[in-house]
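Q: Hi! First time doing this. I have a protein sequence and I read that you can turn it into a structure. Is that right? Here it is:
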Amino acid sequence: MKALIYKVFLLLVLFGIAAHADPLERFGANAAQVSMAGAGSVLETDYTALYACPSSMAFGRRSIGAGFMASFNRAQIRLSPRPSGYDPPDLGGLSPEVPYASRLHPRHGINSTDNVTGLYLGGTVNVYTKRVKVGLMVFAPVSNLGALHTKFNNELEQFFSNSLDWELLGSRLSNTQVMAGVAVRALDWLALGASVRVMMSSNVDTSAYSPNLNTNYFVLKGNASSHAAAIASITVRPLPGWMMAVIFRDKEYTIVQGTSEIQVNGLQGTKDYPMYQKMKMVIGYSPRQVVFSTSYKRNKWGVALDVAWQQWSIYMDNNGDRAGFHNTFSPSMGAYVDVGMGFRLSGGFRYIPTPVPDQTGRTNYVDNNAFVLGLGLKKWFKLKGDHRRVCVSAFAQFQFLQPRSVEKKIPSPYQTCKPGVKGICDEVPDDLKDPQTGKRLPAAQGLQTGNPGFPGFSSGGWYGVAGLQVGWRY
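A: Yes, that's right. Below is the predicted 3D structure, encoded as structure tokens:
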């Protein structure tokens, strides 16, 4: 019954989510940033600066552009063989827990995760003066549109996929990003900028009546509300060719919540008639970020360095629970060189440390340190005598996931599964009694767990992205 109510929530959510998660942070907001492995936030001055560094728009021309990006991966999770002796007792219809042999899906690992395929589109224009620019940018997925993937990161997932999945990759990255903002060049060497990302949240109340096990009737009442996550930055040019910026990006996520009122025939006259169930899902949480970006340019070459701090310590998982992650610093560096005939080569390196501690207890958040390499090629075309107005950029990035192995620890003494318990827990309490005899069940003694991550797992592989971007500056 509860799973069926959740399905109704999910159907409504598919129509209520506008933006969540952060493919732009993971890979980069434009061709230059992707090819330099995330470095160069301060460099780009077109519409993509709305995410990368809004204030940098003030130093550029008006612009319009479009792009395409697609990812491909072999991000693998391998589960250690499940030992015998941890199954719940099988008493048929009187079983205290669904016997492991009756799971709908076998316990299994994965060889890849969801890919990201999307389009960039945007532009910037001056307002009243060349010192003020406004811009609009959209990143829209063309596959997995409206993708929604929730999961449990503990033993409850055995009743669903009966597997593990990546916490910060996959479907989390395949979502629409809508941004608008403004930049002001206050002085010749100083600019300020801000933008917002628009998102939707949903609230749904459900009334349900079940006359028998095979029939359910629902009445839904819901609404969607919008909210915005802010991005702000300041860019300075202290010396010719040198640029510096500080960028702040606020946290963003989508919330789906509501209450179900459920009437089940046969329960009337009991405390369970009607039943009230609350639900809260947090989808695509991206943490608060502060980025320091600097670059130095000469006539035919340039270098860039970015350092990003991310506040993962307040990260919430799908179920709105604090995951216990830690804050991280992620450095990236890149360079480009003009090689003649209007061509520019670029490349870069980034290190993305995982915020996820070793999952030796009850939870199964999967994430790895990543070493990132970027490559790019840009071609400038002449237009009416101006050789730097139209450009086409090809980019690629490879993220190598550092192999990681986790072995679960069995706490002594172990505890019964309930909210707040952090270690591997007993799904069938030792003091459980046989409903027919009233005596304790011998088969309930000891630890019973179907946690998909038990007794351990390993993860690794790679993730790649490639694409094209076309821009016109006028």
